[in-house]
Structures are given as structure tokens and as C-alpha cells.
Design goal:
about 475 residues, alpha/beta, six-stranded parallel beta sheet, about 15% strand, globular
């Protein structure tokens, strides 16, 4: 069994990470009734003998003694990490796996990347190596961060570079929360575009998530429950926004519902790595099958169902609806409409009591309404995990490499250019050692090139594609 390590950076990264660990424990507790440390748990947790005090040896078999998350928590402010250490999850995190400062990055990518990056480099590398040493077969690093702030975008992408240098063979999955247009951080377009250049160059796979989409999904669920349209009781534990049944006992915070959606995305993404299934999909298969070109590694995700009714049995019709919903605009975690854009490839990760025949039937049913590139008409990757999420009989995570991410990047570039044309706020960045104006021009150029690559693909939609010219080898 392989292991993965989660690196959560900045306020958003740590809050989402906290929800992930909380819901992961809830999920394993629902399956692992006997409290045995098994392979499923070992993928994200160590079992540590703490009876002698301190960080004791790992226990690889038998009863659970003390579970420790395979995680590194980084923030340049102490608030969120301290809150985690005083909360119900305090025993899950090893105190040696925390890196905090007091002053924060001041919403400045340069402070996070250039200043704190250099300052904490050795400390971060040492803690990453320590975490890796506890793994038998380290397969993947998951970075969770936001793009709009200073620590998440700056230090988060610095850590990404470090991972490529120190662990080049280990996959790097990045969950990036993009700011909304009404973001309260004025410099967020700068931070996001500077971070995008690093994601383009150093990530294996990026799962972009927009705050606006999360907010819309939370509102949609809230309206459906309160309108009485459902006509049945909703299972609280089935809500993708809910913490019901987890270790969380304190009052939920405003962003918890949104963060729970991202946590559920990560739970479903990693389900095949943790549980058995008739058609398991390894994490490395996602990048291998869904990323045909190195820079086009942005995958649009959608989760369904968003809730389950307590007194409804699941007929095949409802199962088919789950597949249809995965391709609708309402269920995407970014503001996008994949059905009217071009697919490079698509993965369907299904959990629960679903048969391979159900998968094939729905793919055949949906195929005529979806546009795939001409050279990859059969670009489907499927996974079946037998263990459903808590509160559900089945669920689906769809990951689409689709040109519908392009509008998100165009909007981001436009917001960047509005500030950059006036050179507004630039001096805050240029005061930081190692930061030059060329960093901005290179970052926006990198983003423009990415948008152009998507434009070229969109131009082939509906028509035959010619093979790119090849090198001629002299004989």
C-alpha cells in the first residue's frame, strides 16, 4: 500500500486541511469498527506508540494506539494552527510537523515566496524528509493552499518547487483555491498570477477551485433544504457541506461548509488509494491518463450527489441522474460549463454499490453530448471504490481536463492587467529582496501562453486536427 503526505500552507490551506483530516477520521471510523490499524489507515496516518511519552515508534499492525496525520502544517501567522492544536484534532498532529511565524505575509506573494521561502527553506526540507522517512512507499504530496493571499500563494508555491527538487519521483497534486472577483484582498490578482507561473512549471496536477462556486453550492443546498421541495428528510451526514458525525464539537465557522466541499473532493480523490474496489484507480494513473501535455494539467472537478434523502431507495434512474449532474454547470467547483467546451480527457471516480455496467451505460449515454478532442475520442478513465462516503450509498467525483478552465484564467489575467498597467501596489513587492519587475512580466507571459494553448485546442473543436510537424531525422 502506498502513502501520501498532505502539506497545508496558509490560513485557507490549514482550514481546508483541518476539515479533510476530520472527515477522513469520520470515514475510517465508519468502516473500521474494530479499531485495527490497517492498510487503508496507513495511507494517510501513522500509528504511533505514545505510551512512553513523546514521539514513540510506529506500530504497523494490531490495535490503533495513537493516529498521527502524515501532514506538514505551515503558516506565517499562528492563529489557525494554534486553533487546530487547541481543538478536537490536536492529538492527530505531531507538534514536530508544524512551522509558524507571527507576522504573516501581508497578502504579498513576494514576502511568502522570496522572504519566508529563503528563511524557512532548511526547516521545511528537514520536516518533509522526516515525514517521508515514515512512509514505506511515498507516492504523492498533496498541497492545499489559496492563490489570493501571501503565504498560501507565495510560500505554497515555494514548497511546490522544493518538493520537485527534493522528491522528483513523487507526484505533486495541488488543490488551489482561487479568489472571487469580489475578493477583499486588493493584491490577489498579483498573487494569483505570480503563483500560476509556479503551478504551470512545477505541479503534476492542479485542481482549481473557485470560492464563488463553493459559495453557490452551499447556497443551493441551503435553499433546497429550506424550501421544502425535497419532501423528505435529508441525511445530515450525507451533505457535502456537513461536519455531522465528525470529531468537531465546537460551533461551525462561516467557511466550514465551503471547506467541507473541498475536503470531500480530496476524500473521493484518494478513496481508491485507501479502500478496496473492483476497479481501483491509482493516483499516478490520474496524471498519466488525464494530462496529455505537461502544462495543461488543470483538472475541473465536480461532486455528486450533494446530499442524500433519508427515506429514499436508489433506483437506477437516480444513479443515472448522478452521472448527468457531474457534467452540469451547477456541480462544478469552478465557474465553468464543461459540456460546451472541449475535453482532452475525463476521469470518473465512483464510490459505493455501482457496477461496471452502470459506468459503461452512462458513459455511452453521455458521450454524444460531450465534445472530445479528435485524437482522444475514447479519453475516459474510470475507477470503482466499493466503500461509499458516509451517509451515501454511492457518489461520483468527475475530473475533467477541459478547456472550460480558460475563462477563469482570462478573468484573472484581466484583473491582473488593470492593476499592472497603473503599476499600482508594485512597490510593496519590489521592496522584497530578490523580487524584480521581470517576475511580473514573466508571470503574465506564462499565463498568456497557457491561455493561448487552450485557444489552439478550442480552435480544433468540431473539426479534424492535423498532426503537428515532426522532426525529420537524417539517415
Amino acid at each position: 500500500m502506498t502513502q501520501s503526505v498532505v502539506v497545508q500552507v496558509g490560513q485557507c490551506g490549514n482550514q481546508v486541511g483541518c476539515r479533510f483530516w476530520d472527515l477522513a477520521l469520520r470515514e475510517h471510523a465508519a468502516v473500521n469498527k474494530k479499531g485495527i490499524y490497517d492498510e487503508a489507515l496507513s495511507s494517510f496516518f501513522r500509528n504511533v506508540d505514545t505510551r512512553s511519552g513523546g514521539d514513540g515508534p510506529d506500530i504497523y499492525k494490531g490495535k490503533i494506539c495513537s493516529l498521527k496525520a502524515r501532514a506538514l502544517l505551515i503558516d506565517m501567522e499562528e492563529g489557525v494552527v494554534n486553533e487546530i492544536l487547541q481543538g478536537p484534532l490536536r492529538d492527530v498532529f505531531d507538534s514536530k510537523q508544524l512551522i509558524t511565524d507571527v507576522s504573516g505575509s501581508g497578502n504579498n506573494w513576494a514576502v511568502g515566496h522570496k522572504l519566508y521561502g529563503c528563511q524557512y527553506r532548511e526547516n521545511i526540507v528537514e520536516k518533509l524528509r522526516k515525514t517521508a522517512e515514515h512512509c514505506d512507499c511515498l507516492q504523492c504530496f498533496f498541497i492545499i493552499h489559496s492563490m489570493g493571499g501571501g503565504t498560501g500563494s507565495g510560500l505554497g508555491t515555494f514548497v511546490l518547487n522544493l518538493l520537485e527538487d527534493e522528491f522528483p519521483e513523487v507526484y505533486r497534486f495541488v488543490t488551489s483555491v482561487y479568489p472571487s472577483g469580489e475578493d477583499d484582498v486588493i493584491t490577489s490578482p498579483y498573487n494569483s498570477v505570480l503563483a500560476m507561473k509556479e503551478l504551470n512549471e512545477h505541479a503534476d496536477c492542479v485542481l482549481p477551485i473557485e470560492n464563488e462556486s463553493l459559495f453557490d453550492i452551499v447556497n443551493k443546498i441551503h435553499q433546497m433544504i429550506n424550501s421544502g421541495k425535497l419532501g423528505s428528510t435529508v441525511k445530515q451526514s450525507s451533505l457535502v457541506t456537513s461536519s455531522a458525525g465528525s470529531t468537531k464539537t465546537v460551533q461551525e465557522k462561516p467557511f466550514d461548509a465551503m471547506n467541507n466541499i473541498v475536503a470531500n473532493l480530496l476524500l473521493n480523490l484518494t478513496s481508491s488509494a485507501r479502500f478496496e474496489g473492483s476497479l481501483n484507480m491509482d493516483l499516478n494513473e490520474i496524471t498519466m491518463n488525464l494530462v496529455p501535455f505537461p502544462r495543461l494539467h488543470y483538472l475541473v472537478s465536480s461532486l455528486t450527489p450533494l446530499y442524500t434523502l433519508a427515506d429514499v431507495n436508489v433506483p437506477p434512474r437516480r444513479l443515472d441522474q448522478m452521472f448527468s449532474d457531474a457534467f452540469s454547470r451547477d456541480h462544478q467547483l469552478i465557474q465553468a460549463d464543461p459540456k460546451h467546451s472541449l475535453y482532452l480527457a475525463c476521469a470518473l471516480l465512483v464510490r459505493g454499490n455501482v457496477q461496471v455496467s452502470d459506468l459503461r451505460r452512462n458513459i455511452e449515454r453521455l458521450k454524444p453530448s460531450l465534445h472530445f478532442v479528435s485524437w482522444n475520442q475514447e479519453g475516459w478513465k474510470t475507477g470503482l471504490c466499493s466503500v461509499p462516503p458516509v451517509g451515501h450509498s454511492h457518489s461520483l467525483l468527475a475530473l475533467a481536463n477541459n478547456t472550460c478552465v480558460k475563462p477563469t484564467f482570462i478573468k484573472l489575467k484581466d484583473r491582473f492587467m488593470k492593476l499592472y498597467k497603473k503599476k499600482a501596489h508594485l512597490h510593496h513587492y519590489l521592496h522584497v529582496d530578490g523580487m524584480e519587475q521581470s517576475c511580473f512580466s514573466e508571470a503574465v507571459s506564462s499565463l498568456s501562453d497557457l491561455i493561448q494553448e487552450y485557444n489552439e485546442l478550442d480552435a480544433t473543436k468540431g473539426g479534424p486536427i492535423t498532426d503537428p510537424s515532426r522532426l525529420k531525422i537524417a539517415v
